[in-house]
């Protein structure tokens, strides 16, 4: 492919992260906040579609800064026709395929296999998930962020993972911009003073059906292809001070009475339990559950089955969602090697 440069292990693109003492005001206005002046922008996005390998039709700038306990990412998506920016559903984790959007993947252990995905649209939608093994079959099929790859926990992308982070966006005469604030305690990374993470950025310009990446990718790959991602340099994350304790308790009870010949008698039945998440270190998390009540999670989507095949209901219990993609096994045919689906080790 003439004129197409890959960001492989031998020559990754690099973006520098800058430390700041005063964090930015999270309002979506990147260019108007002096906190972002310390960081040099990452630019030079190239199309994955429709014109593979060609420069993106609109300029995109990404800046990375970090303060005490938080990673900040500022994005400016220039657009010569800001009135043509497409915005639609802003519900968390809904599909962003039909809107102007921005996504990034953070390979915090630089293993070029696993990472955290964060994204937003011009309307300020929150989108996040976990990539396992470069997305499995999804790492080379379709477009990241369409919300339809894995609504459950299995496979190579866990869309049901919801981290604690914030994003704000703003639309102006130059296009639209976004500011991300991701606490270090939300993600996992090695316990060392200087971090080296893999990273890639994706921008969608919906009205042109255009997808562009900072670290260029061939048409057959998407954002989950971490082996072709770039890197973040100069990042220092807290080590040993990222303890994060989350406890989600529940209590249910029922009181009833029965009337009979011997008179009424009241009976009471109750149960208690909960889920616990604790960050032991920056790279190790303890997940525990006690007396799990499956009625306290999101209700499964209603499905109608008119054929002989079994229905699949995705995992939604919080305890089973952390790194759930690592507990799925791909089944392949013995002769052809054809993918025959996957088996989840949790039921």
Structure overview:
It contains no helices and 18 strands. It has two domains: about 15-235, Immunoglobulin-like (Sandwich), CATH 2.60.40; about 245-300 and about 310-345, no CATH class. Helices cover about 0% and strands about 40% of the residues. The two termini are about 45 Å apart. It has about 350 residues and is an all-beta fold. The protein has strands at about 15-20, 45-50, 60-65, 70-80, 100-105, 115-120, 125-135, 155-160, 165-170, 175-185, 195-205, 210-215, 230-235, 245-260, 265-280, 285-290, 330, 340-345. Strands 1, 2, 3, 4, 5, 6, 7, 8, 9, 10, 11, 12 and 13 form a 13-stranded mixed sheet that branches.
Q: Beta-sheet strand percentage?
A: 35-45%
- How confident overall, as mean pLDDT? 82
Secondary-structure-derived class: mainly beta
Portion of residues in helices?
under 10%
Quantity of strands, as a count: 18
User: Unreliable runs, pLDDT <50, ≥5 residues?
Assistant: 148-154, 331-341
The helix/strand series, from N terminus to C terminus, equals: EEEEEEEEEEEEEEEEEE
Sketch the major β-sheet. 13 strands, mixed
CATH topology of the largest domain: Immunoglobulin-like
Number of separate helices = 0
Any idea what the shape is? Answer: globular
CA radius of gyration: 23 Å
Kindly provide the name of the CATH class of the largest domain.
Mainly Beta
Quickly give the CATH architecture of the largest domain: Sandwich
Number of domains: 2
Distance between the termini: 45 Å
